[in-house]
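As practice, study what follows.
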Amino acid sequence: MAKASIPIPVFTEAESFTKSKFRDFYIASYQDAPDAGLRRVAPHRHTYYEIIWITEGSGLHTIDFQSYEFKGPCLFLLQPSHIHQIRKDGPTKGFVLKFNESVFAVEAGAENLLLKYGIFDNINVQPVLHLDATAVALLDDLMQKMLQEYKQPTDLSEVIIASYLKIFLLQVYKLKDVHTQTIAQPVPEPRYLTYRTFKQLLEERYQQQHAVQDYADALSLTPRTLNEITHKYAGKNVSQLIKERLMLEAKRLLHHGQLSVKEIAAQLGFEDAAYFTRFFTKNSGASPLAFRSKELELVS
C-alpha cells in the first residue's frame, strides 16, 4: 500500500505574529545557542512575506526544492508561495521579519509597493542577496529602528514601522538592481502577472465587488482558474483574499474612525448592516462594536 504523503505545513499570521498591537507585522533578532537544533523539522511555507537576514553563520537554504549555499551577511526574501527549509552548519545570528501587504495600508500611497517594484520577484535568479559592509550598516540601522519601535510601541508605531519597512524594501530593491544589471532576467511567468493584476484589481474594487466571479470576469478567466492562480502565489483562494481585504478595512475603520457600524457597512459595499455585522463577527470572533471597544481599551 502506498504511503500517504505528508502535507507541507503552512504557518499563518495568527500563529506567527505574536503581538496583538501589530496584526500585520513581526520582527525579532536571534542568536542560536551552541546546542540549538540546526534543522527545521520539515519544509514549510507561510501566508505572509518573510525576510531572513543572517548576519553571521552559514548553511544551506532550500527554496521550492532548490538548495542554495549561504554565508552571512546575506538576505533571503520569501513570498507566501515559497516552500523552504534551512539547514545550518552551526549556530547563526540575525533577524527575522514577517509582514503581509496590509501593513502598508496605514501609509497612503504605499499599498502597491510590492507589486510596483516586484521586490520579491525572481527568487530563482537571486536566491541569496549577499551584502557588503555599506549595505550591512544601512540595513542594520533600519532593522534596529523597526525592532525598537516594535518592542516599545506607541500610538504612532504602525505608521513609523510601515515607513521604515518601505525604506528598507526600497533599499533592498536598489541592491538587487545593482546585482542584476549583468544578469539576464527571465520573462515573468504569465500566471504570476495575472496574480499581480488580480491584486491590483482587488485593491481598486474590494469595496464594490465581493464576488469571485466579478474578478474572474474582469480577467477573462473561470473562477476555478483564478482560484488555482491565487492558491499558487498566495496560498489562499480568491474568496479568502477578498474577505481578508474587507476585514482589514473594517477593522481599520472601527479602530481609527468615528463612523457608525451602518456607515462602515455602506462604505464597504454591504447593503445590509446586519449582514455586515454577521460577516464581521464570523471572521473575527467579536461583533464590530465589541471589537471597537476592545481596541479602545488597548490604547487607553
Observations:
- The radius of gyration is 20 Å.
- The first strand starts at residue 10 and ends at 11.
- Residues 149 and 157 are 6 Å apart (CA to CA).
- Confidence is low (pLDDT under 50) at residues 1-5, 181-186.
